[in-house]
User: Fold Sugar phosphate isomerase/epimerase family protein from Neobacillus driksii.
Amino acid sequence: MKLAFTTLGCPNWDLDKIISNAVENGYDGVDFRGYLGELDLFKFSEFSRNVRETVRRFQEATLEVPCFSSSVRLFTNSKEESENYREELKKYAALCQEFHTPYIRVFGGSIGDTSREEAFSIVEQNVLEYLKIAEEYDVHLLFETHDDWTSSEYMKEIFNRIHSSHFYVLWDVHHPYRTIGEEPVFTWETLGDYVKYTHWKDSYVKEGTQRGYQLCLLGEGDVPLKEIYTLLKKNGYEGYCTLEWEKKWCPEIEEPEIAFKQYSSYMKEILK
Assistant:
């Protein structure tokens, strides 16, 4: 298994600091979820007109970009929004070709008061449209266990309807366990055939907070991370274990200099 962090955890870092920190702490890759406080990478020359220079810098540092974490939602009733997502996907797919990146993360999204059955149909229709782009650029969409799609059974229904070699699962190992109490073994039994990438975080229950839990350094919460790692290893998973440190959304948590070093040390200990 390989280690990466997402740039959600270091929203104010420039490319120099991102690369130097990743190398210093023994990471294999960096997953881009925004840059310098902006979620839209394409506003920056490093990911547009000067992208070849950025690619070169990653190659020289022996770092991969295993995934670009987009803002694309699979559930939307808006034609305008869907078109915007298609354009975003095309931009990320083009970046994937530059960096030799295999994956683009997509969300299911909130379904509001839409019935679950109708939501299944809408997501199915949108995925089929987005897959045309994925197939054209030969990249893979990763459907994350997130928001109204943390239930592995809801996710599985979409994969029962869509069979594509360009459509897989990003298992955020925190969300199903913490938000709906789904046991990791059940998640794997339901979705394991589709899991190509993982996000890692830890937390503990904290009453009176908006989320109902508090994010913390790995090992300081009660998410069964070692059990999850053992489950992945037992079943032959060899992909990335990517820290999603939500510093952009939760400024009270530790600074990235602390969190990234701690994650690398923690994971290398359980990877032994």
Remarks:
- The domain at 2-270 is CATH 3.20.20.150 (TIM Barrel).
- The first helix runs from residue 15 to 24.
- The chain is about 40% helix and 20% strand.
- Residues 133 and 213 are 37 Å apart (CA to CA).
